[in-house]
Every structure is written in C-alpha cells, then in structure tokens.
Amino acid sequence: MTAVTRDSAPSSETEGTDRGLERLVFFSDAVIAIAMTLLAIELPLPEGDDDDARWRSLGELLTGEYLSFLLSFVVIGAFWLVHHRLFQRVARLGPGIAWLNLFFLFTIVVLPLATRLHREEGAEQVGVVVYATVVVAVGVSLLLLLWQLHRAELFRSDAAPGTVPGTARAIAVPVLAFAISIPIAFVSTAAAQYAWLLPVVVLLVVRSYRRWWRA
Hints:
Blueprint: H1 2-41, H2 51-62, H3 65-87, H4 97-121, H5 125-151, H6 163-185, H7 189-195, H8 198-214
Helix pairs in contact: 1-3, 1-4, 3-4, 3-5, 4-5, 5-6, 6-7
C-alpha cells in the first residue's frame, strides 16, 4: 500500500502542474486576443457630406489610422506566435514564470494605448518614440521569459536543441529594429518608422540566402 501511495504522488503533482501550464497559456491567449480587439475599437469611420468626400476620407484613413492598426495587429500577432510556439515546448511551470508572463502580458496590453498615441500624434516624436519603446518592452519581457525557462530547465525533453537560440533570434530582430528607431526618431521620425521594416528585410534576405545555399 505504501509503494502505491508513493508512486501516485508524483503523478498527481505532474497533473496539477500541467493544468497550471494550460491555464497560463489559455489566460495569455485570451489577454492577447482582447488586446488585438482593442486595437480596432476606436478606429474612426470615413466622414464626408457625399460619396466623394467619404472616399477621400477613407483613403486618408488607410494611410494613417488604419495603417497604424495593421502595424500593431501584425506586431502583436508575431509576438503571440513566438509565445505560442515557445510554450508548446514547455513541460511544466517553474519559479518566476507566472510573474514574467504577467509582465509580458502587461506590455501587450499597453500596446493599444501606444498605438492610439502613435495614430493621433502621427509624425511627432512622442508618438514614434513611445510606440517603439513599448514594442521593445514586449520583446525584452519575452526574452526574459525565454531565459528563465531555459535557466530553470523547464523545456520538454523532446524539444529541439535549437529552440532557445532560434526563439531568441526571432525576438531579437524586431527588438533591435525598434530600439534602433528610438534615437533615429529624434532626427527624423519618417526614417525611424522605416527602420521598423528592418525585420521584414532581414527575413527576406535570410530566406533568399537559404534558397541560394540549397540550390
């Protein structure tokens, strides 16, 4: 009877840990989904007294407010993909993970506010700098989460050896692009916003290089 009790204890603890991990992932997905939804709530509608005026208004919105919405939607979606794939390789929760994950979610929730500031301030320094700073904070919080998962050895035994460096690179590229744009914004806000496209350029270059190398 004693042997049965001892064998069953770890199983119960493991099941509890798995449930805790699932709850954390579900909660994170829900918060991220709400943040993405908040991006669209305050989007303005085209205005005008006739159809021509409303079409002109729509064109202005597409290159202004709607473009800011699309940018933030892509940014949050990209970070969600990294977070989602990362936790698919996690075996259990460990010390500090819940708090670091909350920090990550906090930065995600602040991003709609930064998007609104960027949308309203347009080419002004404050809008560009605050937006870039928040995106950097999102990336740094996710890097801290990755570091703690690795340090506490919380990854599954069948996780690929390149999980940590590969995930770190996926996070670091956009973080560096937005971090570089902050000092640039004090010289030219237009150039700073073009720097945000750096991750796309890097991705295209890497994919082209891989295709060339395999050929």
